[in-house]
Structures are given as C-alpha cells and as structure tokens.
Amino acid sequence: MRRFGIVGLSFCILAGPAVALDICEGGPRSEWMTEEAVHARVLELGYTGSHVLAIEDGCIEVKLIHDGKRLEIYLEPITGAVAKIKD
Fold first, then answer.
1. 60 band by pLDDT with thresholds 50, 70 and 90
2. If we measure between CA atoms, which residue out of 82, 77, 83 comes closest to residue 34?
3. The sheet that has 82-86: what strands, in order across it?
4. Which of residues 13 and 64 earns the better pLDDT score?
5. CA distances from 24 to 61, 65, 78 (A)
6. How distant is the alpha carbon of residue 81 from its chain centre?
C-alpha cells in the first residue's frame, strides 16, 4: 500500500507544472495593443526605457530598469491593465 502512495505522490508532483494557468486572458491577437500603445501605457504608469520582449503567460511582458532595479511588467494584451510586476 505504501508503494501506491509514493507513486501517487510522484504523479502529483510531476503533473503540477502541466496545470499552470496563464496570468492574462489574452484574446484575439487582432485586438491586442500595438507596440506603440504598450510603450505609451508604460509611460503612463510612470516608467521609462521599456522594451517589449515577449508574450508570456498570455501577457505582454515588458522589461525595464526603474530606480536602478530591473522590473518585468506583465500587461493584459487588450486592456493594458497591469497583471503582475516582478522585480
């Protein structure tokens, strides 16, 4: 019986990453913000020197340096709402 518990636990651990969900809702790419709109949104938030680098977790990922710290800002691709800020 103990062997089944260990096997079951290992399946739970291995399946964890496969269940990861996107942070942002995404939506049709035709409705996503343009790169210029993303830069304008980041400026509106008070950040400068931004670079749109990737789409990650369904969000537009913007990397920048603010007050000497590296930041990653994840924006909803349609609304521009901040989904997450990671330093």
1. very high
2. 77
3. 51-56, 59-66, 69-75, 82-86
4. 64
5. 11, 23, 10
6. 12
Q: Which two tokens stand for residue 40?
A: 């304008």
Contacts of 87 (CB under 8 A, 6+ apart): 69, 70, 71, 72
**DSSP at 18:** G
% of the chain at pLDDT higher than 70: 76
Question: What pLDDT digit, counting tens, does each position of 16-38 carry?
Answer: 455 556 889 888 999 999 999 99
Domain ranges of the chain: 23-86
CATH number for the segment(s) 23-86 = 3.10.450
CA 20 to chain centre: 12
pLDDT, mean over the chain: 80
Structure tokens at 77: 């691709």
